[in-house]
Amino acid sequence: MSVDDIVEAAPILQLDNIGKKYGNVRALRGVNISVRQGEVTCVLGDNGAGKSTLIKIMSGLHEHTDGTMTVQGAVRRFASPRVAQAIGIATVYQDLALAPLMSVWRNFFIGNEISRGPFLDIARMKRICGAELTKMGIAIPDLDRPVGSLSGGQRQVVSIARAIYFGARVIILDEPTAALGVKQSGVVLKYIARARDAGLGVIFITHNPHHAYLVGNHFVVMKLGQVVLDARRDELTIEQLIAEMSGGEELVELSHELRGVSPDRVVTPQLVEHGGVTAPDHTASRLPRNDEA
Ligand SMILES: Nc1ncnc2c1ncn2[C@@H]1O[C@H](COP(=O)(O)OP(=O)(O)O)[C@@H](O)[C@H]1O
Ligand SMILES: [Mg+2]
């Protein structure tokens, strides 16, 4: 398949006009998203945007109250995460579904243990786990090590490798880089790219536009439960994505605040309180809002 074929291929997972109400709270409204295989679909948004709610619907933790979800051409409504997993949708949560004190190989096979007769086939599980991690390009010489002793990035990679091995076709990553430093984030981003190149549909939830832009093919920005931007990489620059994430007015406000606390400016508390800076001409410096670009 050429890249063009993949782009043209039908989405593996599609949300049409999805809504979710929690009692009177409308967490999602009119959400349309298409996830394709061999692509990273980035879902960005601030706190409260509805990202977690969206993941919960796709991974079977919650049911949507409006709209339809289609997976590989069939309309689906997941009654439980098991159902979602069974048809190949794996979710890697930020706080990780790994048991920190258990070994790497145990974690890899947790819930899917291989046994031989009445006993666990430890040798075989270790062999497979080692081979799968090597395929992902990660070397963990001692698979008996507790997962908790691995770096945050390595732990994420173990989760990703496990999802791929157990047949995931769609992998949802909930803020996998949020708690990581630059180097570790790089490790995780590399494996996101590998999962994509292995043909999975990757859904990468983040509020970091830089991370998203490094690996993303497709960007969906959410605000207060709605999609405010849906663009392919060639339709969007990193600057536009950053601006879209912050919102023009919020950016201007933030820049005021940052100027107020600029480290090279020696100011007394009173000066900070009054800004100590001449207010820039608002009308001239204001970035365009969503609706006026
Ligand atoms: N279980 C719940 N009950 C009631 N309201 C909820 C529940 N989960 C989320 N919400 C509300 O839905 C909105 C979206 O939340 P969420 O999906 O967690 O956003 P995000 O993950 O982008 O921060 C928020 O207003 C939140 O308060
Ligand atoms: Mg969330």
Q: How would you explain this protein's 3D organization?
A:
- By secondary structure, the chain is of the alpha/beta class.
- Helices cover 37% and strands 24% of the residues.
- The chain is built from 12 helices and 12 strands.
- The strands form 3 sheets. A 6-stranded mixed beta sheet has the order 6-9-10-3-11-12, sandwiched between helices.
- Helix 6 runs parallel beside helix 7 (182-197).
- The structure holds adenosine-5'-diphosphate and magnesium ion.
- Residues 51-52 line the site of magnesium ion.
State mean pLDDT (0 to 100 scale).
83
Q: Under CATH, the topology of the domain at 3-90 and 168-257 is which?
A: Rossmann fold
**Largest beta-sheet characterization:** 6 strands, mixed
Strand order, sheet with most strands: 6-9-10-3-11-12
Q: Which consecutive residue ranges, at least 5 long each, have pLDDT under 50?
A: 265-293
| H/E element order | HEEEHEEHEHEEHHEHEHEEHHHH
Tell me the structural class. Answer: alpha/beta
The CATH top-level class label of the domain at 3-90 and 168-257: Alpha Beta
Terminal CA distance reads: 37 Å
Helical coverage, percent range: 25-40%
Number of discrete helical segments: 12
Count of distinct strands: 12
**C-alpha Rg (nearest Å):** 22 Å
Write a concise keyword list for the protein shown above.
293 residues, alpha/beta, Rossmann fold, 6-stranded mixed β-sheet, 4-stranded antiparallel β-sheet, disordered C terminus, binds adenosine-5'-diphosphate, binds magnesium ion
